[in-house]
Every structure is written in C-alpha cells, then in structure tokens.
Amino acid sequence: MQNNSSKSILIDFNQEKEEEYKRVFNRSPLVSSQSVGWDNLTIIYDRQPPIELPKICLKQHCIGILTDIPLPMQTERIIDGCFLRENNVQGDLIIVPANTTHQAAWYSEGCSVAIAIDPVVFAQTIYEVVDPDKIELLPKFANPDPFVYQIGVALKSALIKHGTSSRLYAETLINALILHLLENYSTTRINSVELISGKLPQYKLQQIIDYIQAYLDTDLSLNKLAASVQMSPHYFSRLFKETTGFTPHKYVIRCRIERAQELLKQGKLSIAEIANSVGFVDQSHLNRHFKRLLGITPKDFSQQYKTN
Questions:
Q1: Are residues 17 and 157 located together in one domain of the fold?
Q2: In whole angstroms, what is the distance from residue 79 CA to residue 137 CA?
Q3: Domain-embedded: residue 191
C-alpha cells in the first residue's frame, strides 16, 4: 500500500450512515444500526474481503473491533500519517479519532464491527464529573482488548438477532465502551469507580419508574430514560444500577415481564398481543425472556393460573 498524499475523502456518519459507508466500500454492509432502526446510533457489522481503502477522514471517532478473524490477517495501516504493518487477530481494537486521516489495506477476509461516535457525545458521556474540554481520544493501531471484543460480539448479536427490540441494550453497551475508552485510551485518564458513586435520589428514582411504566409499550432508549431525569446516559446508568441492582435494560425487561404476567392473568389478549402491548418485538422475544426470568413459558403460566 502506498501512502496516499492526495486529499482525503471526508466522511460524516451523522449525515448519511450507510451511504457514507458505500462511498468507502462501494456496497452496503451486512447489517447496520440504520437497517434495524437504531437511528441515534452508528454501528456496522460486515464481512470484509481483501481490499485497499482510500484515505478517509471521519468527523466521528471510529472504533473498529475485529470479531471474526479465523486466521491472522496481514494489514497495512496509516493513521494520521503514521504507517504500520499489522498482523491482525480476532479481538483486535483499532481507534481512529475524529478528524484524523486513515488508510488501510488487508489481504485476507474477516468480519468486524465498526462504531462511529460523535465527539460531543463522547466528551459529554459523563459531563457531570469530567470537563469535556480536557478529554481527547488517542489513536490506536490494532491491539487486543478483551473487554472491547466482548462488547463487539454483543453488538453484533444484538444487530443480527434482536433488531429494533435491542436498542436500549446496544446503547448501554456503547456507553460502557465510551467509559472504557475514557479510562484507557484518552489524554485524561479517569477512574469511573472513584468519580461516579452514590445512588439516585428517591424522587428521581420514582420519576424514572413512572416514565418506564407509562411508556413500557414503546421502544425505550437509554437517552430518553436519562433525559427524563436530566442526566447523561452513562451517569444515569451507573446510578440506576447502584440504586436498583439492575441495568436500565434489565430493569425494563423485568417490568415488561411483570406487565405480561398481569395481562396473562386477565386472559383477554392473545400471547402475541400481550408481547406487542408490553414492548416486545414479537411473541418469541417475550417467550425467551419470560422463561429466562420465571422458568416457565407464557402459555404454561396462563394454563397454571387458570388451573389454580
């Protein structure tokens, strides 16, 4: 690969998510956050054949996670004018900060998750405890990061298997990723345990519980939940878990199962109708979570209740 000194292609995923991807790869990805309806996120999972990419400059922070690399993959990469020959393996993390040029070529096939994070969102994730102006994400050539790899695998699964019903879960993962990047790959290293502690005040906890119950049948997002109590998503998530013992995603799932139990006892709706009315994408999604939490299917629960 030659170091391309020509003008780079400016990419802005805030404007056109998949269209911007096509400008670089000349095709659509296997699946993306846009294709499953996660409009406020930019997450892409794709299988990449051998290719040489043009020099690009993204307006967002770009995080690459190599999720499916059966054999070591030879790659040549240039980040901000610095060249490196890499021997990529499954679990590698690549970081290209916003407004930084990137060019790469690889010579075998592999799959990856790519995440674009707006710099403002990145800096303000925990704005209650860190001055955003002091935070700068650092570039990183491919290097293994087991924690980020697990996030990549979970995001891939959420995109492929669960679609629109998993947006809250995906947002929780992205916030965990941002905090990890702040702690390990930024100019201002932070310690989240020391900086973020305590619990939600009782009135705010009740406020968010009321909000969840009122909008349980909708596609609840982490941003909306946090905004309802005037907090940043990560700060809210951490205090919510400290207070309730559950992440927002797990708490919402439990609320949906409790509501489904009430409706099953009433016996007025079909299981499919109940799944839709409590916010699950379909009956199979309800069945899976219902059995996981209660050890019984909705159908069996309904029959047992009638018998008793």
A1: yes
A2: 13
A3: no
For tokens 């998949």, the residue is: 18
Q: For residue 261, give both structure tokens.
A: 């139990």
**Closest C-alpha to 36, from 219, 187, 197:** 219
Statement to judge: residues 58 and 112 lie in one domain:
yes
Same domain? For 217 and 74 the reply is no
Same domain, 160 and 223: no
Instruction: Show the domain range for 30.
Output: 9-185
The residue whose two tokens read 């999604």 is 285
d(CA 289, CA 77): 43
Considering the domain architecture, whether residues 225 and 173 belong to the same structural domain is answered as: no
Supply the DSSP string of 77-122, one letter for each residue: EEETTEEEEEEE-TTEEEEE-TT-EEEEEESS-EEEEEEEE-HHHH
Same domain, 121 and 244: no
Give the pLDDT of the chain (308 residues) as one tens digit per residue.
665 557 889 999 888 778 888 888 888 999 999 888 887 789 999 999 999 999 999 999 999 999 999 999 999 999 999 999 999 999 999 999 999 999 999 999 999 999 999 988 887 776 665 666 777 899 999 999 999 999 999 999 998 876 556 888 898 899 889 989 988 998 865 555 545 557 888 888 999 999 999 999 988 888 889 988 888 887 888 889 999 999 999 999 999 999 999 999 999 999 999 999 999 988 999 999 999 999 999 999 998 888 87
Residues in the chain: 308
Helices (H), strands (E): how many in the chain? 12, 12
Question: Considering the domain boundaries, does residue 294 fall inside one?
Answer: yes
* Residue 235 sits in the same domain as residue 107: no
Picking from 155, 185, 215, the residue at the C-terminal end of a domain is: 185
Judged by DSSP in three states, 150 sits in helix
